[in-house]
Write a structure and sequence with these properties.
The chain is an alpha+beta fold. The protein is 40% helix and 20% strand. A hairpin with a 2-residue loop joins strand 3 and strand 4 (174-186). It is globular and about 45 Å long.
């Protein structure tokens, strides 16, 4: 029995949509997506029916211009000791409220994400006064991407996290790196959930 090529692609897409959300690492997810048809169908399969807005669990691409711009904002925030300059790289409060279990996710976001982020910016700014001369070089994602398991008092959805990303910059001709402890994906973009 012959099956049309389009039918095979459709079946492969269903397979990817079924298996990718349960994968625990980026390597496995990429392997399934590439086996299906060599493209980024995993990204499309995780998108919501409204194609303009990715689903909460969508896997973002690697660093792009948008993330690079937000990385520059982070470096500027540290150099000026002003966390407000990098709010676009911080995991959004609305996303936290929409994806976390708990009696008051908004209060939890302030306690576990926003306050530690502001504190880390302040500490880094004081510890490295020469950051005011820093020139941005690159934003590199960590290697091990993990899909978090939904659990009580945790994520309600299987969001993706990545640890040990790096912000690379130059100060007075010396290359330096700032490790970023944890980033979490939400709606197809990466955000800092733990800076230090």
């Amino acid at each position: 029995m012959r099956v049309a090529a389009g039918t095979w692609r459709g079946m492969a897409g269903i397979l990817v949509a079924t298996l990718v959300p349960g994968c625990r690492s980026m390597g496995v997810a990429n392997g399934i997506a590439n086996a299906a048809d060599g493209s980024s169908d995993a990204q499309a399969s995780l998108a919501s029916p409204d194609a303009s807005t990715p689903s909460d669990e969508a896997i973002p691409q690697g660093p792009d211009e948008e993330l690079t711009g937000r990385g520059k904002h982070l470096l500027e925030a540290i150099s000026r000791n002003d966390a407000q300059l990098a709010t676009d790289v911080l995991f959004p409060r609305d996303g936290w409220v929409a994806t976390r279990e708990g009696s008051d996710p908004g209060k939890e976001w302030e306690k576990r994400v926003a306050s530690p982020f502001r504190r880390a910016i302040r500490v880094l700014s004081r510890r490295y006064p020469d950051f005011d001369r820093a020139k941005f070089v690159s934003f590199e994602m960590g290697r091990a991407m993990v899909q978090e398991t939904p659990k009580r008092h945790g994520w309600r959805k299987p969001l993706w996290t990545i640890r040990e990303s790096r912000l690379t910059f130059v100060v007075d001709g010396r290359t330096r790196m700032l490790p970023i402890r944890e980033m979490t994906a939400w709606r197809g973009a990466w955000y800092v959930t733990k800076l230090r």
